[in-house]
Specification:
By secondary structure, this protein is an alpha/beta fold. The protein has two domains: 2-87, no CATH class; 94-316, Alpha-Beta Barrel (TIM Barrel), CATH 3.20.20.370. It contains ten helices and twelve strands. The strands form three sheets. Strands 2, 5, 6, 7, 8, 9, 10 and 12 form an eight-stranded parallel β-sheet that branches. Helix 4 runs parallel beside helix 6 (172-185) and helix 8 (234-252) packs parallel to helix 9. The termini are far apart. The structure holds zinc ion (ZN). Zinc ion (ZN) binds at residues 168-169, 222, 226, 262.
């Protein structure tokens, strides 16, 4: 009988020991994967979207708004199973970098009787000044797309509030109105130009682009002309993207590495041509601020629309107005 009790006690101790052991093992396995503040993985502390961490592994939220759900309300992590360890560390290609890449077109006052598209594409110079001033005041740092790309590669730590300002089509008002405002606040801009029309009609001249490049602005490729490359043969696409890249190199002596799909139209075959033409990444008109290296040729952007209020702009960059 005494032997029976001893075995009963010993048996219970073994069960308790096994549970303790399992808990300690789980902590040991789990601990290295707990993210650190500056790390690339899921933020350890609940992070409301409004703080816009530069690096996070959050699911891509469609739009950082004031009403977005904070991390803290999400379901607790599922306890790991015996084989879960392998799933806890995302490969580096899945590193998610959060940078709002703002998409502008015209920075100009509206003509008389503008159509809806013109209104949508135009930001008044005074409004653009207010927006950049706001970004400056709130502590944003403007990045080049090279810096965004290096962050995607895990080679660069980004500042707390990164932002990239991009301008499509190369309108002359970009030189006349956007360029002085960017310089005034010490911000960088990336200009996607159309090389066949540069210097004609309403587009910036090569001299103006040269002056902007010398001041640190980035001149990148939107194409030779504003054409739908998703409906072209691979040879025609290559002519558009490589031809434009060659023209920028010949005229300005700079190597363009980023491409903006005209009207945001692309497909897998277009991506292949852009990749093999020496580009590092490409921007779309798909909405979002979270990027991965795997989707470097489908970088999302945040369209700034001339019809929207200042409060909407503030929320688009993750700030309260
Ligand atoms: Zn365009």
């Amino acid at each position: 009988m005494r032997r029976g009790i001893r075995w009963y006690v010993t048996g219970n101790l073994m069960v308790v020991g096994a549970i303790l052991g399992a808990v300690l093992f789980w902590q040991a396995v789990e601990a290295p994967h707990r993210p650190v503040e500056s790390g690339a993985e899921t933020p350890a502390t609940p992070t409301p979207d409004s703080t816009m961490p530069a690096l996070s592994a959050q699911a891509d939220s469609p739009l950082p708004t004031a009403t977005s759900t904070p991390e803290s309300t999400k379901a607790p992590p599922t306890p790991p199973t015996a084989v879960a360890g392998a799933q806890l560390v995302p490969p580096s290609s899945q590193l998610t970098v959060r940078v709002p890449i703002l998409m502008y077109h015209r920075i100009d006052r509206l003509p008389a009787n503008p159509d809806a598209l013109r209104v949508s594409l135009s930001i008044a110079p005074a409004d653009f000044d207010s927006q950049v001033h706001f970004l400056k005041e709130r502590g944003f740092t403007s990045l080049t797309l090279t810096e965004v790309y290096e962050a995607l590669q895990g080679k660069r730590t980004l500042p707390p509030k990164p932002v990239a300002l991009t301008f499509d089509d190369g309108y002359a008002d970009n030189y006349a109105n956007a360029f002085p405002i960017l310089k005034k606040y010490g911000f960088l801009g990336t200009f996607f130009v159309l090389t066949d029309v540069a210097g004609t009609g309403e587009y910036m001249s090569w001299d103006q682009l040269e002056e902007m490049a010398a001041a640190g602005m980035k001149i990148e490729v939107h194409g030779r002309a504003h054409l739908d490359v998703s409906r072209m043969t691979t040879g025609q696409v290559a002519s558009q993207v490589q031809g434009a890249r060659d023209a920028i190199r010949a005229r300005l002596g700079v190597e363009s590495r980023f491409y903006s799909y005209p009207s945001g139209k692309y497909n897998e075959s277009v991506i292949d041509v852009v990749k093999t033409s020496g580009f590092l990444a490409a921007v779309t008109v798909n909405y979002g601020s979270d990027h991965t290296l795997q989707k470097a040729f489908e970088l999302k952007r945040v369209r700034i629309d001339g019809r929207e209020s200042f409060a909407v702009f503030a929320r688009k960059v993750g700030e309260n107005p």
